[in-house]
Amino acid sequence: MRYAFLDEEAKKEIRRAILKAVAIPGYIVSFASREMPVARGWGTGGLQVTLSIINEQDTLKVIDQGCDGSVNAVNIRNFIKSVTNVETTTSTKEATIIQTRHRIPEIELSEKQTLVFQVPMPDILETVEPNTAKAKIMHANADYSKLWVLLYEDTSQFGDSRISNRYPVLVHNRYAMDPSPIPKYDTPKLHNSKALQLFGAGREKKIYAIPPYTKVEPLKFEDKEFKVENFEGRVCQRCGCENSFLDEVYDDEGKVHYYCNDTDYCDKNLNMKGQK
Fold first, then answer.
1. Is Lyase one of the keywords (predicted)?
2. Per the residue annotation, which of 26, 45, 46, 200 is the catalytic one?
3. Which domain holds residue 261?
4. Is this structure's pTM higher than 0.90?
5. Active site residue 241
6. I need a surface site. Which of 31, 145, 203, 222 has the fewest CB within 10 A?
7. Is residue 236 among the annotated active site residues?
8. CA separation for the pair 4, 144 (Å, rounded)
9. Are residue 37 and residue 117 in the same domain, yes or no?
């Protein structure tokens, strides 16, 4: 079997697309998405990016919605392990490549790490311009007026944007970019990150990137503060953390409980308290 499943020509082609994406932050690059042993829409873009950059010295972590133990994360991690024989981990600090769906880890990433996002819809303009040919022209002209109109309509009617995830960001003062369906809570972490951030959309056959230490700003009006999810007054009932992104869980009696979304972060907090 070939190392990392993909043939060498496929990996070269994907690496060239990644290099172009890194050279033009936020720009969407097309690539020839291959058939993978998972259905399109289940992380094939992120999987192909990871398999193209991974080597024997890497340590891999895979999370789905912040969890290392979800079915999607476990299956993808086991598959990559079976075709590369790399070390795997659930620790964010120990990983050199982190493949993620819909979250950025709580702790700050380092220069030695690469964060690979699984992306369902790569072009943020799809929400306001269904014609892809027109959307390409709008990107070329940096014409994001329709996005601004969307934000203005929300602000004028509801006082703020109703966008809860996939909040549009401007990369390096040039391209409007879809940050994948991460919550608004994670959007500020894209800015000036020490880690290389790669985005792969297998079904849409697109790759884009944010190089380390790149300026990334959410699209917002100058007189409006960018607000993220507020968990004030709520704590994780497992580790007691007061400053993480929390999941809302209802029990059989309808009572609400809150838990850290990032399971590794929650485990580390418990270890520090000696409760595990």
1. yes
2. 26
3. 232-275
4. yes
5. no
6. 222
7. yes
8. 39
9. yes
